[in-house]
Amino acid sequence: MKKSFLRIASYISIAFIMLYAYLIAKGFSDWGKLLSFDPLLIPILSAGLFLSIYVHIFLHEAGHFLFGKLSGYRLVSFQVRHYKYSQTDHSLHHMQTASPVLAGQCLMAPPKGDYAELPYRSYLLGGVMANALTGASLYGSAFMMELKLGSLFVLFSLVPVWMALANLLPKAQNDGALLMEASRSLHARKLMFRQLEMAKLIEEKVPFADLPDAYFASLKDPHYQKSFLVDYFYMVAYVRALGDLDFEEADSLLLAFSANRPVEESVYWPVYVMESLFCDALFGRIEAAKGKFVQIQAHPLLKRYWIANSRIRAAYAFFCLADIEETKKLLGQGPAVAQDSSPETDANIELRLYRWLKSYFEN
């Protein structure tokens, strides 16, 4: 909470400094006029700034794409909020269930070669550089305009400047954190490159069971447990186990994840809480499941995940609450048909789990 407050305070301070520097440079001296403006401008400018966020998210991901291409990377997918372009079938998809924490993503496969020699800095920092250049261009242009129009340019330069800082200063798994982690050790870089390679295979709808076992060797190697990049491999291994309806293996993976990693610091913490509740319900750990349910209801982000996943809610209603009617209702909200013909894509694994739960009500 304290870090978030300091971060917000620093962004506000930067905004005031940029505006103050611009006004001083333009020779503005009537500071009383700053408070005399049409109140209707506030909602108009607020709406404009909000909409500009999507433009700068696109430019951020385009920066990753440009600098990635220059480094030899190959495009896998390009996503801005609910819209995703897939290079596999050259089509644009509307994502009904986009991650609540994913604003955009330019996923690219690294060039082939020795992990120790592959480039990564330009690809990781491409988005930051795109936002920084956009912000600098808008801010610099303001000095060549008359005061009122220039002030608007200063105002709209704040969004890309803030976005550049938010992605550069290490936090969670943003660009700055990934760069710092990849620069720390060869083990971390190997995890990052393997993650990109495996994400490419998943995007190409390679069955989870066919993903190379070598990618999951890091789960048993203590050298890799020191990096937050191993968290992704736990999650993929968990989904792979669910695809085989191997719930014992899935449960053991979550238990190992929580034992070896600081789970609450992971970007996959919401997924872990949800799926561990699912496993608790399946294995009769009723009190543990109910405790997580209380935690979910008290946390806005977790609650959004909860509402979006009828399968986990149905498992909780059936195994923990013994509420048959609610279970049937929730299962009726699940996927009715597979999204494609591949047997073990994420969508079809979810469908298989729904069918498994529905089998309890079949004669």
Would you kindly provide a brief summary of this structure?
The chain crosses the membrane at residues 5-25, 40-59, 122-143, 149-169. The chain is mainly alpha-helical. It contains 14 helices and four strands.
Give the C-alpha Rg. 24 Å
Principal-axis shape equals globular
Largest sheet: 4 strands, antiparallel
Order of helices and strands: HHEEEEHHHHHHHHHHHH
Uncertain segments: 337-344
Provide the helix percentage: 55-70%
- Which band does the percent of strand residues land in? 5-15%
* Count of DSSP H/I helices: 14
For the termini, the CA-CA separation is 52 Å
Number of domains: 2
Broad structural category: mainly alpha
What characteristics describe this protein?
363 residues; mainly alpha; 2 domains; 14 helices; 61% helix; transmembrane; membrane
How are the secondary structure elements laid out?
Blueprint: H1 2-25, H2 41-70, E1 74-80, E2 83-86, E3 91-94, E4 104-109, H3 121-142, H4 147-168, H5 175-184, H6 186-203, H7 231-243, H8 247-260, H9 269-282, H10 286-298, H11 300-308, H12 310-320, H13 324-331, H14 346-358
Helix pairs in contact: 1-4, 2-3, 2-4, 3-4, 3-5, 5-6, 7-8, 7-14, 8-9, 9-10, 9-11, 9-12, 10-11, 12-13
Description:
This protein folds into two domains: 9-26 and 49-169, no CATH class; 186-361. Helix 2 runs antiparallel to helix 3 (121-142), helix 9 packs antiparallel against helix 10 (286-298) and helix 9 crosses helix 11 (300-308). Strand 1 (74-80) and strand 2 (83-86) form a beta hairpin. It has helices at 2-25, 41-70, 121-142, 147-168, 175-184, 186-203, 231-243, 247-260, 269-282, 286-298, 300-308, 310-320, 324-331, 346-358, and strands at 74-80, 83-86, 91-94, 104-109. By secondary structure, it is mainly alpha-helical. The protein has a four-stranded antiparallel beta sheet with strand order 3-2-1-4, with helices on both faces.
